[in-house]
Description:
- Keywords: ATP-binding, Nucleotide-binding.
- One of its GO terms (molecular function) is ATP binding.
- It holds the Pfam family Wzt_C.
- Residues 145-276 form the Wzt C-terminal domain.
- InterPro entries: Bact_Polysacc_Export_ATP-bd, P-loop_NTPase, Wzt_C.
- By secondary structure, this protein is an alpha+beta fold.
- It has two domains: 2-121, Rossmann fold (3-Layer(aba) Sandwich); 148-265, abc- transporter (atp binding component) like domain (Coagulation Factor XIII, Chain A, domain 1).
- Helix content is 25%, strand content 34%.
- The chain has helices spanning 2-16, 31-44, 61-76, 88-94, 112-124, 134-141, and strands spanning 49-53, 80-84, 97-102, 105-111, 150-159, 167-169, 174-187, 190-196, 202-207, 217-228, 236-245, 252-265.
- β1, α3 (61-76) and β2 (80-84) form a beta-alpha-beta unit.
Amino acid sequence: SRKEMDAKIDAIRDFAAIGDFFDRPVRMYSSGMQMRLAFAVATSLEPDILVIDEVLAVGDEDFQKKCLKKMRELRDSRVTVLFVSHILPIVRYHCKNAILLHNGNILKYGKSEEAVDAYYKEISFKKVERESEKESDESLLGNNQDTQEAVINGVQFFGVDGKERETFTTREKITARIFYSSHRPLKKPSISFALFDAEDRIISAHTTHFDGYSIDCLDGEGYFDFCVDDLVLLEGHFKVSISISDSEGLQKYDWHQKKYTLKVVNGPEKAFGVVYLPHHWCGPNARVNT
């Protein structure tokens, strides 16, 4: 009702954060402003069911974080939230269950991690022509293979047993296999691997250039392995960024920013924090409990 809206107008204004445009006709808004206002209005009315369709595709990082925080508050207050998105890390971390749709058909229904895994496998590792999904594929992979000199085709994670998976244990050996395609010979390229925690804080970043691993030329299709001999991460969900650039990293041919996820569970080691430091204790009066 109008009375309810008047009572909530200040909260809506603050959340939408569109400045003086708030008092102007909606026809003067950009599409992003319209989405901001619509989300602010819908969430302020304390709905029983909230449908959010790609709203996080607009707005800056601060607005996206506000939306996610509001979604968590609604979820915790037992509001049913139907979230439609191609931003897979958000689906994985913020949704309990998920449905993977293709041309109106349900391909997968279950836990969000299972649905996200099915989506990655569907588009990243199967060379199947799916013209109807081309636009969503490019949205996920962040590239256009018709115009880029080199593209990242996907990343697979393997354990020491050679089996592909996404969950690993602290102190385990892990290999990240980076698949690429080069549309012309590229001399002296550099591959990068960067790891972020769930709060988007960088944990570690490495490049072939800085590591002294020289790549003479990229030509055609292939892959490189980023091998970790001792995974010192403690339990948590992590994001991985991959890029292909020139030798100095100044020109990026392709960049998958935080497109891939890695789950780590604790092994027998007992510790707190983000990483496990290989260590031992010693002292004149110390002994090891067995």
